[in-house]
Amino acid sequence: MITATARAKVNLCLHVTGKRADGYHLLESLVVFAECGDDISVECDKELSLEISGPFADGTGLTDDNLVLKAAHLLQTESGANLGAKIRLVKNLPVAAGLGGGSADAAETLKLLNRLWKTGFSAQKLADMGLSLGADVPVCLVGRPVLMSGIGEHLREIPAFPKLYILLVNIGVTVSTAEVFRRLELRARGDMPPVDRFMTAEDVLDFLENTRNDLEAPARDLAPDIAMALSVIGAQDGCRLSRMSGSGATCFGLFETEDKAAIAASAIQSHYPDWWVRACPVSR
Ligand SMILES: C[C@](O)(CO)[C@H](O)COP(=O)(O)OP(=O)(O)OC[C@H]1O[C@@H](n2ccc(N)nc2=O)[C@H](O)[C@@H]1O
Ligand SMILES: Nc1ncnc2c1ncn2[C@@H]1O[C@H](COP(=O)(O)OP(=O)(O)OP(=O)(O)O)[C@@H](O)[C@H]1O
């Protein structure tokens, strides 16, 4: 059996720069991953099967709509062999939450089955397959700090990244990515500043000061409580930035120390027991 964690994707900033003829939006985003996520395991079996457990298991189906099964079928088709596997998914991340949980699951499934089945696809081929499953799958295949552009197919890895801690807060409201993009008013809002080197936490925070998430306003129209989550996070001692991730509704806070992030997480969780709250390091 081989296992992996499909970690939560966080868009530290997200600028929408245009729209393609097919309706997909062009983006620029600094993407990182938090050290928490869904657990996936695969082992050889005659048939292909998926078992889902965990706190958010109900949000995803066992049908071909599940991105884990979609990824497995795609790998079967591309390899031309009807290979089997027993796949287990422990769904720890909220669904349709802006954390790319489904995309991270698909990415890890592609990598795990490529190893289990010895199909030998290159990283580029897996990224191409991933893009056909979802715009966030290629970045999730990388799993560390990346500058993403296009609709998610152009990726530039950030060679070094400082220690930072992230607080994730989900208010329990799901928003549809397609609906958030549909509500976005396309207009020039200013380019993302060039990325030089992120040697210190201050470098990252200075860069982020001149950035934004363009999907925050349309997501807030759909889920006004996002504003409350942002102000609660921003009020925590040591929080250097609070913002929404992806198409929402999960919001995050950035901290320089692990203890301040953990104290903020337990304070928020005790005030809002129904919210999903996690504090963890940013993957480097
Ligand atoms: C918002 C982000 O999470 C930022 O990382 C991604 O751009 C979304 O990635 P994703 O959830 O994998 O998105 P997909 O499943 O490919 O697309 C869902 C829907 O969102 C819209 N969509 C998505 C990505 C994009 N660049 N432009 C779009 O307009 C499209 O209507 C699409 O039908
Ligand atoms: N394994 C899976 N985990 C989560 N969602 C899945 C999965 N398979 C299919 N889905 C479907 O995909 C949709 C998007 O789920 P996901 O959790 O990836 O969204 P998201 O976090 O908003 O993504 P993004 O950050 O890319 O906008 C949901 O509507 C869900 O039903």
UniProtKB/TrEMBL annotation:
Pathway: Isoprenoid biosynthesis; isopentenyl diphosphate biosynthesis via DXP pathway; isopentenyl diphosphate from 1-deoxy-D-xylulose 5-phosphate: step 3/6
Single Gene Ontology BP annotation: isopentenyl diphosphate biosynthetic process, methylerythritol 4-phosphate pathway
Record's signal peptide: none
Sample GO molecular function, one term: ATP binding
Domain GHMP kinase C-terminal: residue ranges: 209-273
Domain GHMP kinase N-terminal intervals: 66-143
Top-level class of the enzyme under EC nomenclature: transferase
Family: Belongs to the GHMP kinase family. IspE subfamily.
Name the record gives this protein: 4-diphosphocytidyl-2-C-methyl-D-erythritol kinase
Encoding gene, per UniProt annotation: ispE
